[in-house]
Specification:
This protein is mainly alpha-helical. The chain contains 9 helices and no strands. Helix 4 packs antiparallel against helix 8. The longest helix is centred in the N-terminal third of the chain and has 26 residues. The protein is extended and about 80 Å long.
């Protein structure tokens, strides 16, 4: 009797654990498939602090600078090259006046800051950049030679969408919108993380279902290569 009761208890406990894990897997969707916190997902450094408004003065300054730059370059109609040249000219004149004033008052000029990079950091960055560039070149090679027609079709659709978006707004407007969204969206997401993940999980399941139907009915029928393999 005791063995049967223990067996029943273990089965009940296993069923409870299985149902709990199924519930967690169905409801535990996280945006971008991340495992840690949003701060860790953004890098966990100073950039993450700025994007999450933990350094609110820097975040607010980014919005102000981006807005002023957008108004100068987009709304005023001033050429980009002229504005950059005027800003550099004013900066050089101010530095020249400051240096001569310090020499006239026998004050020591501030030392020039140096950029210090370790050899290991440079080698790692160069190796990572080389791998990414080679992957992009290999992908472009496969697309141009027709080795993967489905990838070619997707690239054409993405470029067409970018062209359509670019016909309605300029590059500076797109850069300004991207800057504002990058500074404001993460902090709102971290505040309403559970609600956003819940609704994004529902949308993700529906989109995956519809994409599976399209993939089975349309994309899988597109040949991966337009060229036939020749027997040697």
């Amino acid at each position: 009797m005791e063995n049967s009761s223990n067996t029943d208890g273990e089965e009940t406990r296993n069923q409870t654990i299985a149902s709990t894990s199924a519930t967690i897997s169905s409801e535990g969707y996280r945006l971008f498939g991340r495992q840690g916190s949003i701060h860790q997902f953004l890098g966990g450094g100073k950039v993450a602090d700025v994007l999450l408004w933990k350094r609110w003065h820097v975040s607010f300054g980014v919005i102000i600078v981006a807005t002023v730059a957008w108004l100068i370059f987009e709304r005023s109609g001033l050429p980009f090259l002229s504005v950059c040249s005027d800003v550099l000219l004013i900066l050089i004149v101010l530095l020249f006046v400051h240096a001569n004033y310090a020499a006239y008052r026998n004050r020591q000029l501030p030392t020039l800051p140096e950029l210090v990079l370790s050899e290991e950091m440079v080698n790692n960055a160069a190796a990572s950049f080389r791998v990414k560039i080679n992957n992009v070149l290999l992908m472009a090679h496969d697309i141009t030679l027709g080795k993967d027609f489905r990838l070619f079709f997707k690239v054409v659709i993405c470029l067409w969408l970018l062209s359509a978006i670019g016909s309605y707004c300029s590059f500076f407007t797109l850069a300004y919108i991207g800057t504002i969204l990058s500074v404001t969206v993460p902090v709102f997401y971290s505040k309403y993380e559970q609600h956003v993940d819940k609704y994004c999980g529902i949308i993700h399941r529906k989109f995956s279902h519809h994409y599976k139907i399209v993939d089975e009915s349309v994309i899988n029928r597109i040949p991966r290569s337009l060229s036939k393999d020749k027997d040697i």
